[in-house]
Every structure is written in structure tokens, then in C-alpha cells.
Amino acid sequence: MEREFPSTFVWGVATSAYQIEGAAEVGGKGASIWDAFVRRPGSIADGSTGDVAIDHLARLDEDVALIADLGVQAYRFSVSWPRWFPEGGGRAAAAGRATYDRLVDRLLAAGIAPWLCLYHWDLPEALQRRGGWADRDTVDRFVDYAGAVLAVLGDRVDHVAVLNEPNVHALLGHLVGVHAPGLADVGAYAGAVHHQHLATARTLERLRSDGVRAPLGTILNLQPVVAARDTDADRAAAELLDAVWNGNALEPLTRGRYPEATAAMMAGVVRDGDLEALSQPLDWLGLNLYSRHRVEADADSIVGLRIAGPERGVATTSMGWEVVPEALYEQLLRLHRDLPGVPLYVTENGAAFDESPGAQDRVEDSARVRYLFDHVGRVARARAAGVDVRGYFAWTMWDNFEWAEGYEPTFGLVHVDRATLVRTPKRSFDWYRRLATEGARPPAIEP
Ligand code: IFM
To answer: What is the number of the ligand 1 atom nearest to the C-alpha of 16?
Structure first.
């Protein structure tokens, strides 16, 4: 098959610590805000927790062998901060550090580049008790943590991402309250946004001065926002959500300011000199994209808007998210324009669909294959339009803990039986393996 992507293009899969690791208290791990949040009655749709998740740490060898079998060049994982520092700082847990040492060494031995993400939403609960991201001191704690992790792993990791989707973490965890730490407070939201930006900038500075050689970047969840109807009210609602979701995430990094629509809300946490300090150079930026937002005005909501249902005729995933591959193309183009010269990676893209193993215990997930086929095609198109996008990571390797939705939505290329935790590659696994090894999309299987 003729290559659609050069051999230097990076194919990978992404995961995060709390969603897969399990081993909730092994090795002296401290509690994270997710360990606390899942214990609040009603917080998780199916009442589950990440205590066992997919028991990844106990099955590390098997799991790394499966990643190798997938034929990808890179694996993106996150470090659990409270596994390394149970109290957020101070004494490190030897077992925590050894966990990631082992993971990185296993990946390297299997020829897979380790892409390390320092934070995927699991703040130490000890720090939350002191205010969490709403408190500026968390910035210092984070920079110290980042320095300590890279002092151990910095000689072996291939790329470093400072944060994963700080915008989603701030919004869902601090304003909407459906994710940990479960706050619904504008001040906490503004603090979480701003302090995560400061933490990113100061970590980039610190790691550079420590001489970390791996390219340093960060990861945002950005999605085009469209008005549900062609009315002034819906257009204004779309502009507002665009400012909150995309603008608050990107403009401080690219333009050293918050969007006009959110500036007043952010003013309470921004100190003199902060905005200038945020524009640290990025060696790369990661884009996580699944869909678009379709919004409408809603006078009854405190923010004046709400997410509208899917447009008629547009397919949805089991998360209820519209399948809109064009959104990926548009977003890549927009980033190319806003961040000239910064290499881009799609660090998450994928879909959950209702599925269960068929007769041969095989998941024939043709809807996922179609989704991947169409989205990867838009990456190829963006490259042809001149966008410097250098890699693509499927979300995700294994069916896992999907936060407030529990284990019901399944995003994996690999099915995980909830009773036995047995891993079974799906049809999409084979499809992705051919893509990763041949650099061209195999045909999508028709449903
Ligand atoms: O599972 C999440 C991941 O942790 C962050 N990005 C979106 C995924 C799907 O919801």
C-alpha cells in the first residue's frame, strides 16, 4: 500500500494513570482527588472506582507486550503524583518511583518511545485539603514534583507533556462539579485555570534549566464550537463557550492574555507579571479532540447557555458526542494559524461505542474503525494543507475507567472483561496495527 504518512510520523496510544493502574494503596500510594471523589455517593454513574481499574500495574509485562504487538512507535502514559509523593511533596514513595522506572525500562526494551505526561487529573488529596488548584501554592508543589520525576526519568523519556487537558479539569472539576474535586465555584474554576497555566510555564522553565533533553510540551482539549440555530442568542452562546473552552486554554499561552469574554472572571486570580510569564516556548503542543460542541442559549442556566443535542442526521458515540471528523481538520488548521512554528501532535482521538464480544469472543468494532479511518484521514488532509502535525495517538489502548461514567463507555482498541480483566484485542486493534506499521489507512470495514 502506498504510504499516506512519512515513516517519521509517530503512531501511538494514550492512557492515564487513574484510568488503568489500579493498586489503589499498594506501595504507600497516597489518595488522589479521584480516590476521594469516587467515594461520594452518586458521583460515578455505575458506582465504580479506579481501585482496581484494569489492574495494569500488576500486569505490566503482559500490557507492554500488547502495546508492542500493536506496532506503535510511542506510548503516552501519565504518572500518578500521589503514587510518587503520597502527600504531594516531601517524602517520595520508593515504590512509586520504581513503578515508573520499570514501565519506562520495559517500554524501551520493547522499542516503544515513552511519552510521559506529568498530570492527568489525579491531584494528591493532601493538596486538595489545602485548596488544590484554586490555591496558588499548588503551583510550587507541582514544579517541585515535576523536577523530581524528571530527575529520575528525564534521561529515558522521549517527550514530556506537562498537563493533560487542564481546561477540562478546571471546568468539569471546579465549575460544573461532575469530576474531582467536585467543586461548582467560579472562583475555584478561575484559580484552577490560571494556576495550571502558571504551573505549565514554570515547569517548562524548570525542566529546561535542569537540562531535560526531551521535547517539552503540553496537551489541550480543543473543539470547534457551533451555534445550534442561526440566531443572535445562539451565536453569542457559541462565542462564550468558545472563549471559556478554547480561548481560556490557548490565549494565555499564545497571546499572554485571557479572552475578553472571560477576562473579568479571571482578574481575581491574575497577579502583576503573571501573564508575561505564561508565554514560555513550547517544543510541541498536543491536541485532544473527539467532537465539536453544539450550543444553544438557555436563559435558565447561570451561564446562559447549554450543550444542545446532536444535529439531526449526525451520528453519535455512546458518550452522546457527535461524530464530526471535519472538526479535527478545522482545529488543526486553527492551531497552525495560532501557533505558527509549533509542531502539533494529536495526543488523543477515539470513540466509545456500545459493543460486546461476539461469537468468537471477538469485538467487531466496525464503528470505531470507521471513526478512526475518517479522523486519521483529516490528519492527512491537514498535513497536505501545510499543518505541521507529526503524530497521532489513539485514545485508548484498553477499555478503562471513564471518570464519572464509570466502566460503561468503552474507548479501547482492546476489550477488557470486567469480571476477569482478560484482555482481548478488538478488530480496531488489527486495523490500527496495519496503519502504524504501513503508514497508510487500511480500508474501513463496513458495518
Ligand atoms: O478518558 C478521557 C481522557 O481521560 C481525557 N480525554 C478525554 C477522554 C475520553 O473522555
So the answer is: 4
